[in-house]
Design a protein that fits this description.
By secondary structure, the protein is an all-alpha fold. Among the domains are: about 40 residues, no CATH class; about 55 residues, no CATH class. The protein has five helices and no strands. The termini are far apart.
Length: about 150
């Protein structure tokens, strides 16, 4: 290896939140291709929309899918109405998971919704556990002080 060889920077040279180009493009700025496309479409939106609708009505499945996606976007979330037993300690959590399984079995909620709710139950379990440990430490410290 030559003595005058310059070593390449390895890893990430910038700290988190620090830009390599502070005078760079501002957040939310559109690139040139997007601006050009918007300029081309300006004034044509209603004609293009009408054309897509006509194509969809004519049986074009891609156009139909496009139109339906705009009219009725895919559902992200929906409210779930399930009666859960009260949770006062970690020993109550199996009752919650049993209620989730029963709701899935009865078709009241789907497996994906049950999984999301189970994650919430897990977060609550962690909170109960932390509260329990905090209380135990507090009691132990009080005993040591006496």
């Amino acid at each position: 290896m030559a003595e005058n060889t310059v070593r390449k920077q390895r890893g990430k040279p910038f700290k988190p939140g620090q830009s390599g180009n502070p005078a760079g493009k501002p957040a939310g700025a559109k690139n040139r291709a997007t601006l050009a496309a918007l300029e081309l479409l300006e004034g044509e939106a209603s004609a293009l929309t009408r054309k897509a609708i006509d194509a969809a009505l004519g049986g074009d499945m891609a156009a139909l899918r496009l139109c339906l996606d705009r009219i009725v976007p895919p559902a992200k979330d929906r409210p779930v109405s399930i009666k859960f037993p009260a949770i006062t300690s970690a020993t109550d959590l199996p009752k919650i998971t049993a209620a989730l399984l029963a709701a899935v079995g009865a078709g009241e909620i789907g497996p994906t919704e049950a999984t999301t709710l189970a994650k919430l139950v897990e977060v609550h379990r962690g909170a109960l556990e932390v509260a329990d440990i905090t209380e135990r430490i507090k009691r132990l410290e009080e005993k040591v002080k006496k």
